Protein backbone atom coordinates (compact mmCIF):
# COMPACT_ATOMS: atom_id res chain seq x y z
CA UNK A 1 0.00 0.00 0.00
CA UNK A 2 1.50 3.40 -0.94
CA UNK A 3 2.31 5.66 2.03
CA UNK A 4 0.64 9.09 2.32
CA UNK A 5 2.73 11.96 1.04
CA UNK A 6 2.97 13.48 4.53
CA UNK A 7 4.41 10.39 6.23
CA UNK A 8 3.56 6.88 7.40
CA UNK A 9 -0.02 5.73 7.82
CA UNK A 10 -1.56 6.70 11.15
CA UNK A 11 -3.12 3.55 12.62
CA UNK A 12 -6.49 3.92 14.33
CA UNK A 13 -6.28 3.49 18.11
CA UNK A 14 -9.36 2.83 20.25
CA UNK A 15 -9.21 4.58 23.64
CA UNK A 16 -11.58 3.49 26.41
CA UNK A 17 -13.23 6.38 28.27
CA UNK A 18 -14.86 6.81 31.64
CA UNK A 19 -18.54 7.76 31.83
CA UNK A 20 -20.03 10.26 34.24
CA UNK A 21 -22.83 9.46 36.68
CA UNK A 22 -25.98 11.46 35.93
CA UNK A 23 -27.03 13.97 38.58
CA UNK A 24 -30.04 16.31 38.87
CA UNK A 25 -27.80 19.14 37.66
CA UNK A 26 -26.31 17.07 34.79
CA UNK A 27 -28.89 14.37 33.97
CA UNK A 28 -27.17 13.09 30.83
CA UNK A 29 -24.13 10.81 31.14
CA UNK A 30 -20.97 12.00 29.41
CA UNK A 31 -17.98 10.09 28.11
CA UNK A 32 -14.83 11.46 29.69
CA UNK A 33 -11.15 10.85 28.92
CA UNK A 34 -8.05 12.85 29.77
CA UNK A 35 -6.78 14.61 26.68
CA UNK A 36 -3.22 13.45 27.45
CA UNK A 37 -4.06 9.94 26.20
CA UNK A 38 -5.17 11.17 22.79
CA UNK A 39 -2.31 13.67 22.66
CA UNK A 40 0.24 10.91 23.31
CA UNK A 41 -1.26 8.66 20.64
CA UNK A 42 -1.21 11.55 18.17
CA UNK A 43 2.37 12.57 18.98
CA UNK A 44 3.48 8.96 18.58
CA UNK A 45 1.93 8.77 15.10
CA UNK A 46 -1.49 7.25 15.78
CA UNK A 47 -5.06 8.33 15.10
CA UNK A 48 -7.05 8.25 18.37
CA UNK A 49 -10.72 7.32 18.61
CA UNK A 50 -12.89 7.18 21.73
CA UNK A 51 -14.68 3.84 22.02
CA UNK A 52 -18.28 4.18 23.28
CA UNK A 53 -19.69 1.63 25.71
CA UNK A 54 -21.86 -1.22 24.52
CA UNK A 55 -22.93 -4.67 25.68
CA UNK A 56 -23.66 -5.66 22.08
CA UNK A 57 -20.97 -8.22 21.23
CA UNK A 58 -21.49 -7.84 17.49
CA UNK A 59 -21.04 -4.08 17.76
CA UNK A 60 -17.80 -4.47 19.69
CA UNK A 61 -16.60 -6.93 17.04
CA UNK A 62 -17.38 -4.40 14.33
CA UNK A 63 -15.49 -1.62 16.10
CA UNK A 64 -12.42 -3.76 16.69
CA UNK A 65 -12.41 -4.77 13.02
CA UNK A 66 -11.80 -1.10 12.28
CA UNK A 67 -8.93 -0.31 14.62
CA UNK A 68 -5.30 -1.38 14.82
CA UNK A 69 -4.68 -1.06 18.56
CA UNK A 70 -6.45 -0.61 21.91
CA UNK A 71 -5.53 1.67 24.80
CA UNK A 72 -7.17 0.74 28.13
CA UNK A 73 -7.06 3.83 30.33
CA UNK A 74 -7.04 4.34 34.09
CA UNK A 75 -9.44 6.18 36.35
CA UNK A 76 -10.51 6.92 39.92
CA UNK A 77 -12.10 3.52 40.56
CA UNK A 78 -11.20 -0.06 41.44
CA UNK A 79 -11.83 -3.32 39.62
CA UNK A 80 -14.56 -5.31 41.47
CA UNK A 81 -12.81 -8.10 43.43
CA UNK A 82 -15.29 -10.69 42.16
CA UNK A 83 -13.60 -10.25 38.77
CA UNK A 84 -10.59 -12.08 40.24
CA UNK A 85 -12.43 -14.41 42.60
CA UNK A 86 -12.09 -12.48 45.85
CA UNK A 87 -14.32 -10.67 48.33
CA UNK A 88 -13.97 -6.94 49.03
CA UNK A 89 -11.53 -6.08 51.80
CA UNK A 90 -11.01 -2.95 53.86
CA UNK A 91 -9.48 -0.22 51.74
CA UNK A 92 -11.27 -1.09 48.50
CA UNK A 93 -12.33 2.06 46.69
CA UNK A 94 -15.38 2.75 44.51
CA UNK A 95 -16.00 0.32 41.64
CA UNK A 96 -17.53 0.86 38.20
CA UNK A 97 -18.94 -2.48 37.14
CA UNK A 98 -20.31 -1.30 33.80
CA UNK A 99 -16.96 0.12 32.78
CA UNK A 100 -15.07 -2.97 33.92
CA UNK A 101 -17.41 -5.32 32.03
CA UNK A 102 -17.04 -3.23 28.88
CA UNK A 103 -13.26 -2.88 29.08
CA UNK A 104 -12.77 -6.55 29.91
CA UNK A 105 -14.74 -7.59 26.81
CA UNK A 106 -12.86 -5.10 24.64
CA UNK A 107 -9.57 -6.42 26.00
CA UNK A 108 -10.61 -10.03 25.39
CA UNK A 109 -11.55 -9.33 21.78
CA UNK A 110 -8.39 -7.30 21.16
CA UNK A 111 -6.16 -10.08 22.48
CA UNK A 112 -8.00 -12.68 20.40
CA UNK A 113 -7.17 -10.60 17.32
CA UNK A 114 -3.55 -10.12 18.44
CA UNK A 115 -4.09 -6.36 18.34
CA UNK A 116 -1.48 -4.33 20.19
CA UNK A 117 -2.80 -3.49 23.66
CA UNK A 118 -1.50 -0.89 26.09
CA UNK A 119 -2.97 -0.79 29.60
CA UNK A 120 -2.26 2.30 31.69
CA UNK A 121 -2.63 2.29 35.49
CA UNK A 122 -6.05 0.64 36.00
CA UNK A 123 -5.67 -0.68 32.46
CA UNK A 124 -2.57 -2.59 33.54
CA UNK A 125 -4.46 -4.03 36.51
CA UNK A 126 -7.29 -5.13 34.22
CA UNK A 127 -4.81 -6.82 31.86
CA UNK A 128 -3.50 -8.92 34.75
CA UNK A 129 -7.02 -9.73 36.00
CA UNK A 130 -8.37 -10.60 32.53
CA UNK A 131 -5.55 -13.09 32.04
CA UNK A 132 -6.12 -14.76 35.41
CA UNK A 133 -4.20 -12.73 37.99
CA UNK A 134 -5.24 -10.93 41.18
CA UNK A 135 -4.77 -7.50 42.77
CA UNK A 136 -3.64 -5.95 46.02
CA UNK A 137 -6.88 -4.21 47.01
CA UNK A 138 -5.14 -1.47 49.01
CA UNK A 139 -1.37 -1.05 49.12
CA UNK A 140 -1.26 0.73 52.47
CA UNK A 141 -3.08 -2.13 54.23
CA UNK A 142 -1.69 -5.13 52.39
CA UNK A 143 1.88 -3.92 51.74
CA UNK A 144 2.70 -1.96 54.91
CA UNK A 145 6.36 -1.56 53.95
CA UNK A 146 5.52 0.12 50.64
CA UNK A 147 6.03 3.82 50.03
CA UNK A 148 3.12 6.10 49.15
CA UNK A 149 1.96 5.52 45.59
CA UNK A 150 -0.61 8.32 45.37
CA UNK A 151 1.45 11.43 44.77
CA UNK A 152 -0.03 14.78 45.78
CA UNK A 153 2.11 17.00 43.57
CA UNK A 154 1.80 17.76 39.84
CA UNK A 155 1.38 14.48 37.95
CA UNK A 156 3.42 15.76 35.03
CA UNK A 157 6.37 15.46 37.45
CA UNK A 158 7.80 12.12 38.56
CA UNK A 159 7.48 10.70 42.08
CA UNK A 160 9.81 7.70 42.27
CA UNK A 161 12.01 5.45 40.14
CA UNK A 162 11.16 2.07 38.69
CA UNK A 163 13.58 -0.54 37.45
CA UNK A 164 12.78 -1.54 33.88
CA UNK A 165 13.83 -5.17 33.54
CA UNK A 166 16.40 -6.14 30.92
CA UNK A 167 15.22 -8.46 28.17
CA UNK A 168 11.63 -7.23 28.19
CA UNK A 169 9.66 -5.47 25.47
CA UNK A 170 9.26 -2.57 27.88
CA UNK A 171 13.05 -2.22 28.02
CA UNK A 172 13.07 -2.03 24.22
CA UNK A 173 10.58 0.84 24.48
CA UNK A 174 12.08 2.79 27.38
CA UNK A 175 15.57 1.45 27.95
CA UNK A 176 16.53 -0.86 30.80
CA UNK A 177 17.40 0.29 34.31
CA UNK A 178 16.02 3.13 36.39
CA UNK A 179 13.30 5.40 35.03
CA UNK A 180 11.51 8.14 36.96
CA UNK A 181 7.71 7.83 36.87
CA UNK A 182 4.61 9.38 38.39
CA UNK A 183 2.39 7.44 40.79
CA UNK A 184 -1.39 7.72 41.19
CA UNK A 185 -2.63 4.33 42.42
CA UNK A 186 -3.59 2.60 45.67
CA UNK A 187 -3.98 -0.88 44.14
CA UNK A 188 -1.38 -3.06 42.44
CA UNK A 189 -0.75 -6.43 40.86
CA UNK A 190 -0.68 -9.22 43.44
CA UNK A 191 -0.53 -12.68 41.82
CA UNK A 192 0.67 -12.55 38.24
CA UNK A 193 -1.55 -14.12 35.60
CA UNK A 194 -0.17 -17.17 33.75
CA UNK A 195 2.07 -16.07 30.91
CA UNK A 196 2.54 -12.59 32.36
CA UNK A 197 5.98 -11.35 33.44
CA UNK A 198 7.09 -8.36 35.48
CA UNK A 199 8.81 -5.80 33.28
CA UNK A 200 9.19 -2.97 35.83
CA UNK A 201 9.23 -2.80 39.61
CA UNK A 202 9.54 -0.02 42.19
CA UNK A 203 12.19 -0.03 44.93
CA UNK A 204 9.57 -1.12 47.51
CA UNK A 205 8.63 -4.20 45.48
CA UNK A 206 5.40 -2.96 43.89
CA UNK A 207 4.92 -4.25 40.34
CA UNK A 208 4.97 -1.28 37.96
CA UNK A 209 5.03 -2.94 34.55
CA UNK A 210 3.86 -6.24 33.07
CA UNK A 211 3.71 -7.88 29.67
CA UNK A 212 1.88 -10.92 28.38
CA UNK A 213 4.42 -13.01 26.51
CA UNK A 214 1.92 -14.94 24.35
CA UNK A 215 0.97 -11.80 22.42
CA UNK A 216 2.95 -9.59 20.02
CA UNK A 217 2.37 -6.49 22.17
CA UNK A 218 0.34 -6.60 25.39
CA UNK A 219 1.94 -4.28 27.92
CA UNK A 220 0.69 -2.66 31.10
CA UNK A 221 2.34 0.11 33.12
CA UNK A 222 1.20 1.31 36.52
CA UNK A 223 2.22 4.92 35.92
CA UNK A 224 0.93 7.48 33.40
CA UNK A 225 3.59 7.87 30.67
CA UNK A 226 1.32 10.16 28.64
CA UNK A 227 1.67 12.82 31.38
CA UNK A 228 5.49 12.57 31.42
CA UNK A 229 6.28 12.93 27.73
CA UNK A 230 7.74 16.42 28.17
CA UNK A 231 9.24 16.06 31.66
CA UNK A 232 10.67 12.52 31.34
CA UNK A 233 10.96 12.15 27.52
CA UNK A 234 11.79 8.41 27.36
CA UNK A 235 8.14 7.78 28.24
CA UNK A 236 7.12 8.73 24.71
CA UNK A 237 9.04 5.65 23.56
CA UNK A 238 6.31 3.38 24.94
CA UNK A 239 3.62 5.10 22.87
CA UNK A 240 5.87 5.14 19.81
CA UNK A 241 6.42 1.39 20.03
CA UNK A 242 2.69 0.84 20.60
CA UNK A 243 1.87 2.81 17.47
CA UNK A 244 4.62 1.11 15.46
CA UNK A 245 3.12 -2.28 16.36
CA UNK A 246 -0.36 -1.04 15.42
CA UNK A 247 0.94 0.21 12.08
CA UNK A 248 1.76 -3.40 11.17
CA UNK A 249 -1.93 -4.36 11.32
CA UNK A 250 -3.53 -4.07 7.85
CA UNK A 251 -6.25 -1.55 8.71
Written overview of the protein:
- The chain is built from seven helices and 13 strands.
- By secondary structure, the chain is an alpha/beta fold.
- It has a single domain, classed as Rossmann fold (3-Layer(aba) Sandwich).
- A nine-stranded mixed β-sheet has the order 4-1-5-6-13-12-11-8-9, with helices on both faces.
- α3 (97-112) links the parallel β5 (69-72) and β6 (117-120).
- The relative contact order is 0.17.
Give descriptors for this structure.
251 residues; Rossmann fold; nine-stranded mixed β-sheet; two-stranded antiparallel sheet
Q: Given the structure, what is the number of helices?
A: 7
* CATH level-two architecture: 3-Layer(aba) Sandwich
Strand order in space, largest sheet? 4-1-5-6-13-12-11-8-9
Strand content: 15-25%
Topology:
Layout lengths: L11 E4 L2 E2 L11 E2 L2 H9 L3 E4 L6 H8 L4 E4 L24 H16 L4 E4 L1 H9 L4 E2 L2 H4 L17 E5 L4 H6 L2 E5 L6 E2 L6 E6 L5 E6 L5 E4 L14 H12 L4
Parallel strand pairs: 1-4, 1-5, 5-6, 6-13
Antiparallel strand pairs: 2-3, 7-10, 8-9, 8-11, 11-12, 12-13
Amino acid sequence: MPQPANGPRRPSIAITPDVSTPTPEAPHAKYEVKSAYADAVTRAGGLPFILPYSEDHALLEAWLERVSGVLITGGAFDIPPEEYGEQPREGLGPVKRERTRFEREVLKLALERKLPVLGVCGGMQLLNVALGGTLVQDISRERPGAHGHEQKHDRTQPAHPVEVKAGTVLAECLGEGDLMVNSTHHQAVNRLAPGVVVSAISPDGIVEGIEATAYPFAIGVQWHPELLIDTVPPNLGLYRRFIAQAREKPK
